Amino acid sequence: MATAEAADTSFPTEAAPPRARLLVFVAWCVWLLVWLAPAMLLSPRVSDPRPWMGSEAAPAAVLAGAAFFLVAAWPFGPALTVAPRRRTAVGARLIGLSVLEVAVLAALAAPFLVVAWSLAGGRLAVGPAAATAGGLGVLGIGLRVAAAGLPDGAGRRLMFGALLACGGPPAVAYAAAETVGVALPELLEASPVVALVLAATAGWPEGAWPEVARLWLWPAVGVGLAVLGVLCARRASTSQV
After folding, report:
1. pTM of the model
2. How far is the C-alpha of 62 from the C-alpha of 197, rounded, in Å?
3. Residue 205 in contact with residue 214, Cβ under 8 Å?
4. What is the per-residue pLDDT across 120-134, written as a single tens digit (0 to 9) for each?
5. Who is most buried in 31, 59, 165, 224, counting CB within 10 A?
6. How many CA atoms lie within 13 A of 209 on its CB side?
């Protein structure tokens, strides 16, 4: 009995409570507003605004913030904030709830994107941006399922990996350009944040690697992580029996 109880406490719950979900949606809206604020509030009041503060950069800014939140923050809320007191199903129900949450996040983001699109004078490649954002949604769902299905501590490691994937390629590319004067556009596009921004500003990618980086790389990673999370959860559940 004690062994079964100890084993039962080693699994994270599958989703956050309703109040935590509401806080996630509020945080999402506030986060997008922060990224929209430079073009909307600061740029008109600055005599010589930076390029990233201009109205033309509004869609890229909002989408960069959305990509970062969707990949490096949203998937890890339940695994990092909910006490792992009981085992719940990691499978179709968790994936369904995650898909529903992603749909709600997309609906909440629509007004911010409309404002950004208006500020930029309609400069937004809607089709490529939607396709890439959908792929990042798959990645976020895969990260959430993996964080719920893998052993304790995996959520923090996955979150560190997501942060590294978002910020690592731009940081390395910038350092290489500033120190040795070498441009690394291929590495830059490996970031999911950069992939979404480029899809929204440059349209459909041309060339093998840009197409893979913006459309196929991260959805494939998300599917692989989801499968891994489900398999690990089932194996752990079988070992308890």
Report:
1. 0.85
2. 9
3. yes
4. 887 889 999 999 999
5. 59
6. 8
